[in-house]
Amino acid sequence: MHHLQCILHAQRCLGWGPLASVSWLLPRTCRAHSSFSGTACPSPEGRQEDGARKDFSSRLATGPSFQHFLRSASAPQEKPASADVEDPPPYLTVDELLGRQRKVYLETYGCQMNVNDTEIAWSILQKSGYLRTSNLQEADVILLVTCSIREKAEQTIWNRLHQLKALKTKRLRSRGPLKIGILGCMAERLKEEILNREKMVDILAGPDAYRDLPRLLTVAESGQQAANVLLSLDETYADVMPVQTSPSATSAFVSIMRGCDNMCSYCIVPFTRGRERSRPVASILEEVRKLSEQGLKEVTLLGQNVNSYRDNSEVQFNNAVSTNLSRGFSTNYKTKQGGLRFAHLLDQVSRIDPEMRIRFTSPHPKDFPDEVLQLIHERDNICKQIHLPAQSGSSRVLEAMRRGYSREAYVELIHHIRESIPGVSLSSDFIAGFCGETEEDHLQTVSLLREVQYNMGFLFAYSMRQKTRAYHRLKDDVLEEVKLRRLEELITVFREEATKANKTSVGCTQLVLVEGVSKRSATELCGRNDGNLKVIFPDVEMEDATDSGLRVRAQPGDYVLVKITSASSQTLRGHVLCRTTLKDSSAHCSPE
């Protein structure tokens, strides 16, 4: 049996370029009479390129072996700070890295970070000469940007791969071979297991390897599998401007930091996204300015732990005073010093365009010092909405989760936020059935939902993930049917309390950013209020408050005043009063 050839692509070690990466190039092998040959399986179309492929393979064979760099792959690598331009690896020419107008189809699964990652990946591929298509049938490359937060998320990808298998087989008979890639967290978590389980997958790229996509796809074109799943200590894609693909979009995500250092016992994110590192303030401000110039009316600052942002990119930033944690909260890591913090960034971003709403997600409750809360209260264009993931209402479970706070400290923070930001909208995350959770623990979570009365919530049954502390130290001992029963109870209570909370908006006038036509009715429009709740209202003519006497119909990107007439746990309804601006609306809006 021919052993799989492993080639480690380590640019930093060889001085080939600024991106340190590890990639395996796994030759496809042909099965013949129950044995494996040592040559790649050529498609009928590929036989014409045998000479070129042999030349390419010979160049690969002379490259470094996997063992040569095995030690370098054991830990995240740092990029040289001075390198600005990447050189192609020695076994590829610049021309071979070009996409030659091959069409790429991208599918995104999971969180907002994956939406932003999709735009980053597309920006990189577009510059390499690829075209994007929304038609799956005409694609030359299909890339799935994946999620690993729960087992169900990964199963969705496995099911999708099975669906794509028939398309790939059919393509081999009709025209050039279709290439399929797995990007993001699932690629990082499972690595070669994906290549071994699904031979149809051609490339793997972890969240820190998107710059390497042109090389990976070039290697895949030669008939081999290719992977780069090395995590970086400093990759933030600060110099990559994400490509907004929807011309009618009113909002955009802006990644400000990547990774997470919290190491909550249930969470896979530190193992799939790596350590925390923040983009320089200047690059974030530049991106937000460009989005403002494009006419977008809302940006959401993104990060796995967004409010722990800390820009240490300039030496003078290290003298900045460290901010305090929320009262009663602690960290699982040594206190970090210096750097420009989240309050500074939020202040600077909010000054760029007074007519652009600013949101941020997902924060950790420990990182809400008073200066952040005060800034949210003072600035009209920073939305009065805070996501405050609790995960559980039981102090005992919170300790097992390594969340760094008790129920009492969390509730105290809730009260402090509501005192600091009147009318604030709150949302949260909850996990049902974590390791060792008793019925009493569950009832404490139920009571927290009733006590806080969140406007929005995201609730899930616990799904144990390999590599996490819970996987190694705790026992997943809550029966699946019990998890699901507790989850249903949490959802029921959340909806009851959210409906009560949202009904306090009835009779109030709220500013709504119009997103477009309602999915359920062509005669209605939908948008979101300051608290990020969906608001539905009739598509009718209205007065333009900025131009007396003018009658208009609301368009995506317009701000309108809507008087709320009814509310549910997820949606508000009302009738539109007029078109306005964010600046002028504050005199007319009533508290939510």
UniProtKB/TrEMBL annotation:
<dbReference type="InterPro" id="IPR006463">
    <property type="entry name" value="MiaB_methiolase"/>
</dbReference>
<keyword id="KW-0411">Iron-sulfur</keyword>
<dbReference type="Pfam" id="PF01938">
    <property type="entry name" value="TRAM"/>
</dbReference>
<feature type="domain" description="MTTase N-terminal">
    <location>
        <begin position="102"/>
        <end position="222"/>
    </location>
</feature>
<keyword id="KW-0479">Metal-binding</keyword>
<keyword id="KW-0949">S-adenosyl-L-methionine</keyword>
<comment type="similarity">
    <text>Belongs to the methylthiotransferase family. MiaB subfamily.</text>
</comment>
<dbReference type="InterPro" id="IPR058240">
    <property type="entry name" value="rSAM_sf"/>
</dbReference>
<dbReference type="GO" id="GO:0046872">
    <property type="term" value="F:metal ion binding"/>
</dbReference>
<keyword id="KW-0004">4Fe-4S</keyword>
<dbReference type="InterPro" id="IPR006638">
    <property type="entry name" value="Elp3/MiaA/NifB-like_rSAM"/>
</dbReference>
<dbReference type="InterPro" id="IPR038135">
    <property type="entry name" value="Methylthiotransferase_N_sf"/>
</dbReference>
<protein>
    <recommendedName>
        <fullName>Mitochondrial tRNA methylthiotransferase CDK5RAP1</fullName>
        <ecNumber>2.8.4.3</ecNumber>
    </recommendedName>
</protein>
<dbReference type="GO" id="GO:0005739">
    <property type="term" value="C:mitochondrion"/>
</dbReference>
<dbReference type="InterPro" id="IPR013848">
    <property type="entry name" value="Methylthiotransferase_N"/>
</dbReference>
<dbReference type="InterPro" id="IPR002792">
    <property type="entry name" value="TRAM_dom"/>
</dbReference>
<dbReference type="GO" id="GO:0051539">
    <property type="term" value="F:4 iron, 4 sulfur cluster binding"/>
</dbReference>
<dbReference type="Pfam" id="PF00919">
    <property type="entry name" value="UPF0004"/>
</dbReference>
<dbReference type="InterPro" id="IPR005839">
    <property type="entry name" value="Methylthiotransferase"/>
</dbReference>
<dbReference type="InterPro" id="IPR007197">
    <property type="entry name" value="rSAM"/>
</dbReference>
<feature type="domain" description="TRAM">
    <location>
        <begin position="503"/>
        <end position="578"/>
    </location>
</feature>
<dbReference type="InterPro" id="IPR020612">
    <property type="entry name" value="Methylthiotransferase_CS"/>
</dbReference>
<dbReference type="GO" id="GO:0051246">
    <property type="term" value="P:regulation of protein metabolic process"/>
</dbReference>
<dbReference type="Pfam" id="PF04055">
    <property type="entry name" value="Radical_SAM"/>
</dbReference>
<keyword id="KW-0408">Iron</keyword>
<dbReference type="GO" id="GO:0005829">
    <property type="term" value="C:cytosol"/>
</dbReference>
<feature type="domain" description="Radical SAM core">
    <location>
        <begin position="246"/>
        <end position="500"/>
    </location>
</feature>
<dbReference type="GO" id="GO:0035597">
    <property type="term" value="F:tRNA-2-methylthio-N(6)-dimethylallyladenosine(37) synthase activity"/>
</dbReference>
<dbReference type="InterPro" id="IPR023404">
    <property type="entry name" value="rSAM_horseshoe"/>
</dbReference>
